[in-house]
Amino acid sequence: MLVLGIDTSCDDTSVAIFESESGKLLSDRVSSDIELHAQFGGVVPEIAARQHLEIIIPMISNAFDEAGIAPDPDTIDLIAATRGPGLIGGLLVGLGCAKALSLGWNVPFVGVNHLEGHLISAALSQDIPYPHIAMVVSGGHSEIYRANSPADYILLGETRDDAAGELLDKVGRLLDIPFPAGPTIDRWALDPENGKSPVRFPRPLLNKTDNIEFSFSGLKTACLYFLRSDESANVRREIIGAEVFRAAVDCLLGKAFLASDRENLSTIIISGGVAASSYLKREAEKRASDENKKVIFPEKRHCTDNAAMIALAGLYKFEKYGPDTFDLDCDSSITVGN
After folding, report:
1. DSSP symbols for 46-83
2. Which of 81, 119, 306, 327 is geometrically suited to a Cys-Cys bond with 6, CB 3.0 to 4.6 A?
3. What would the CATH number be for the domain defined by 130-297?
4. Domain regions of the chain by residue span
5. Which of 106-121 are b and which e, b meaning 16 or more Cβ less than 10 Å from the residue's Cβ?
6. Distance between CA 126 and CA 137 in Å, rounded?
7. Helix, strand, or coil (residue 129)
8. Is the pLDDT of residue 288 over 70?
9. How far is CA 136 from CA 42, 80, 121, 310, 336, in A?
10. Spatial separation of the C-alpha atoms in residues 221 and 171, rounded to whole Å
């Protein structure tokens, strides 16, 4: 089957064409508007939706050109688009476009849970074993699942407040880092010089082994209070940002490996935008080696939002449940399994 994937869940407009028999991506395109939103210090939903509406059709046309196939019903067998979670304006553009193409071409379509896309994203580049522990870490989500199959996930724990990516964005504003702050803070955390400081922020819930949960709002507050203190005058912002991220990574890995122990599963897959972090990957691989476990990450380009993972997740959904009907609506707060 050839699957056309569409993702417009946040600020990136993404289109992909996936071939199921070979497992190859014939096209994998992402248009980022990060510079447009950077001037506002974050994603502006209305601007993002208008950008999706303006470029979605040219993006689809370019994807077919890249794949070397004609954009007609004789080539595409399935259309998969994100229906949630995400920003409702963008979701409406992508899902509406998928429905229109489905109707015009008489090709089935499915609405895909964006999180289930992230959960399957590592399979775009490698074989992944089931069952395994799956952790999604992004700007809006920090959750841990037991993945029994590509369509069967059990939530084991999640954040009580802020997501890890949201923490980085908020700390970035405190430290006057241009949006998005994550890549900059990641580089700071990798620098060993930034770890030679007496600054030590809390690791919320890390030692609470009776739950698999995160809480990052207190870490953000600890950073804020430190910046307001006299002590911060002699500490470089690189050290502060690095310590915040090191604390967050300690919490993320602590709970992921706790879940691994509890479920007696030796493979942990970490996905989502924060999984693009080189520091997180280094620390995860180091701990996995120490504990004789295996940790898997998607390719870096598939950690952030992309339509390739939506195409693959849509294929699995279609094979199990069949096509969706045109009354399917967007759901900005949909959860995994719904």
Report:
1. HHHHHHHHHHHHHHHHHHHHHHT--SSTTT--EEEEEE
2. 81
3. 3.30.420.40
4. 2-119+303-321, 130-297
5. ebbbbbbbbbbbbbbb
6. 20
7. coil
8. yes
9. 21, 21, 11, 15, 11
10. 9
Say which CATH topology domain 2-119+303-321 has: Nucleotidyltransferase; domain 5 (3.30.420)
User: From CA 70, how far away is CA 333, in angstroms rounded?
Assistant: 35
289: pLDDT strictly greater than 90:
yes
Supply the pLDDT for residue 198. 82
Structure tokens that stand for 134 in this block: 């799956």
SS3 207: coil
pLDDT band with cut points at 50, 70 and 90 for residue 189: very high
Phi, psi of 196 (to 5 degrees): -95, 60
pLDDT recorded at residue 19: 96
Q: How far is CA 305 from CA 30, 224, 273, in A?
A: 9, 29, 7
Say yes or no: do domains 2-119+303-321 and 130-297 share a fold.
yes
Nearest alpha carbon to residue 203 among 156, 141, 250: 250
pLDDT at 186 over 70: yes
pLDDT given for residue 36 in this prediction:
65
**Cα angle 25-28-30, degrees, rounded to a multiple of 5:** 165
Beta bridge mates, 135 = 144, 270
Q: Model-level pTM?
A: 0.94
Answer for the pair 331, 84: CB distance below 8 angstroms, yes or no. yes
* CA distance readout (Å), 31 to 24, 75, 211: 20, 24, 39
When pLDDT is averaged across residues 63-88 and rounded to a whole number, the result is: 93
Give the model's pLDDT for residue 37. 60
* Mean of the per-residue pLDDT values of the chain: 94
What are the backbone angles phi and psi of residue 70, rounded to the nearest 5°? -85, 140
- Per-residue model confidence (pLDDT) at position 32: 75
DSSP three-state, residue 19: strand
| Statement: residue 92 has pLDDT above 90 | yes
Nearest Cα to 12, choosing from 46, 61, 49? Answer: 49
